[in-house]
Amino acid sequence: MSSPAHAKVEAPERSERFLTRLQSSAPSVAVTTGANDRLARSRDRWPEAAKWSDNDQERHLPAAVVAPASVEDVAKVLQIAHDEGISVVPFGAGSGVVGGVVNDGLFISLDLGSLNEAPVFDDERGEVTAGAGMLAADLEAALNARGRRIPHYPQSLALASVGGLVATKSSGTFSSKYGNIEDLLVALEVVLADGTIVRTHAVPRSSTGPGIAQLFVGSEGTLGVITSVTLRTFPLARASRFRGVAFDELADGLATVRGVLDAGVTPAVIRLYDGDEAAHIYERAGIDGEGRALLILGHDGHEAVTATEEAVALSVAADHRGTDLGTGPGETWERTRFDASWLDRGNAGETNIADAIEVSAGWPELAGLHSRVLTAMAPYVDKAYAHYSHFYPNGGAVYFIFFTSGKDREEVLERYRQAWNAALQAVVATGGSVSHHHGVGEARKDWMSQEHGTALQVLEKIKDALDPAGVLSPGKLGIAARVNGQNND
To answer: At 357, is the secondary structure helix, strand, or coil?
Structure first.
């Protein structure tokens, strides 16, 4: 634990002492205390934060924004922060949607955006190492120029940092075939709370104990600061095929997906939309969907393989009363898959909020989860619909989009929070997970104990071991913040 003496020193004095020490011992670290810079790093794209009052904003401002230029700079920042009892909240690109960078009390924002040096390619191994601050889309473009790719395509590809993808345990739209970020990760470099630099061994696989790199996947800045990652890469696809299949009943679409996977076919993309959400794709594709569910299938790789996979998948769909709509809906989805403009439109103005809640469950619970969550949210939302966004041999994920409003900011926030609570309570009652790929942040931290039970104690003990002073992202992941002064000023 940090010294109790820290609690006796006023926050401004501790902040000034931290900054003085930092600028003296690490002059390459850029420091700003400007109001606009502090505000920009105080929140991500969490819709609730966009409705903060002036008092709320003030309460969540970091004391300063520090931007290290190297892993050694990060180590120095953490060493001094550890000594001075100052909390540190890592900031990647601010693309998160659950308040992962939100904090209060005395803390500094550790802006990792400068850790974006040119990636190191290892073509012989089929790997690439990139700084945590590099944008995922920039890394993908650099790989594409070499005939390679990382087929990890979250909707936030152009907005998210590479380190942020790992820290929040991201999932991309091609996950069915290529896996999620944890499956693509080979090794990482991370700085612990006391400034120790750790680099894990880059090998295809190892059985020398638990995977240390995986410990930091999804840790959301609580266990260490990720400074670089090494990822697997793949050749560019020789062929890509996207297609849409309509179903009168959503249940037939689910049966098709399970039948395709059971047949040994693994499409890169499997997305099943209920009739309400499918209407948007039908409209863009110029098709009269008549309220039918829509299954988007995407196959990529070798020409012969993609053609065969598609033929098998369409045959399974036909067995479940699916209507092949051709390439139009699939290509429309592929062309617009990074469009999240609904989020900006739905959050325009003080009295409107739009958001998404993504959860997961096994096959026995999956269909019921869809209807149960929509029913639970109904009293608090103006409109809601859903699609199944990711599938696995043993289950899948459901992605709920909802819109709510109120007569003023207070009412819309209350309805918004009630919608979230109703949705997650339904998920817990069904036996699912309250998050599939957006992470925990502020939105879900109070649900961690309900999902994990006594297993959360394991994470708490790891936190105690790696960050006994509670310097890193205090209060996140449902772990109680340390009471040593820095979080209670």
So the answer is: strand
